[in-house]
Description:
Layout: H1 2-19, E1 29-36, E2 39-40, E3 50-51, E4 58-60, E5 63-68, E6 75-80, H2 92-105, E7 111-116, H3 123-131, E8 135-139, H4 144-151, E9 159-168, E10 175-189, E11 199-209, E12 216-217, E13 220-221, E14 227-234, H5 240-248, H6 252-262, H7 273-297, H8 299-303, H9 306-314, E15 319-323, E16 326-330, H10 338-348
Parallel strand pairs: 1-7, 7-8
Antiparallel strand pairs: 1-5, 2-4, 3-4, 5-6, 8-14, 9-10, 10-11, 11-14, 12-13, 15-16
Amino acid sequence: xxxxxxxxxxxxxxxxxxxxxxxxxxxxxxxxxxxxxxxxxxxxxxxxxxxxxxxxxxxxxxxxxxxxxxxxxxxxxxxxxxxxxxxxxxxxxxxxxxxxxxxxxxxxxxxxxxxxxxxxxxxxxxxxxxxxxxxxxxxxxxxxxxxxxxxxxxxxxxxxxxxxxxxxxxxxxxxxxxxxxxxxxxxxxxxxxxxxxxxxxxxxxxxxxxxxxxxxxxxxxxxxxxxxxxxxxxxxxxxxxxxxxxxxxxxxxxxxxxxxxxxxxxxxxxxxxxxxxxxxxxxxxxxxxxxxxxxxxxxxxxxxxxxxxxxxxxxxxxxxxxxxxxxxxxxxxxxxxxxxxxxxxxxxxxxxx
Length: 353
């Protein structure tokens, strides 16, 4: 059942991608983002629900992959329901392979870059990218080998980077606008594994001042700055600062996860694991269909959130009238989205060719 669901979703995404401007620029570049999330469930009747990362909270643990381009909002490439206590990276190499194949079927024939957090930093995920002919950009964390490499970077190698909009610090929540970035062009990862698993690529490191540490201790000022480091491992060809900006944009998948929990995944309706897995797939398909409708409506709706699309295009307070065997739809008077909605209607219901 699971394989059938995923195949249907893959074909369902390819069709609107071929007939609507769902992924503009995908023939040049596309980003495939992978992440996992926990969905809290209540009671003991849900199959697969278990205590995982959050103490005392029973969850299911879905995997998600999205596709976006520099000009588009993300669409959902693949989803997978898992048990609550499943490890973050369980099944990730196969899942990554499926997401990259789906991206190609959806028209992403140019450069494809897989982006992921540190829980997906493993040899299997990197190998899946290379087999598919895709690039990777994966956060590494600070293991002992990475620490040694980071601390060997010369002081004059760091470049200043400023963010157009402040971004929250992942540990303190403080907004930061400036950081420094450096690169180690040749870093070999997974040296503790067999030789065939070792990969040599770029290690790009962003560092920011540790705002959690006081600048003054007692009466003595700060002797030297304290930094926190955020490295990622990549083989993508962009210059250092551009690669860092593009990797940080991986956070777009969090918007999709938040939207899922505010919508269809606010409640998983069944006690059966496979039924909830099918529900997850149906949510992914309807989300992509709604995104395609937005692309056919207007420039504003192309970039709008799915909550806005539902409010403007689906939950319309219209009145249906029947007269002379004809059905007339009366839209709200002075409704600001009237022309956008009618444009979508006329596009979808155009005369047969």
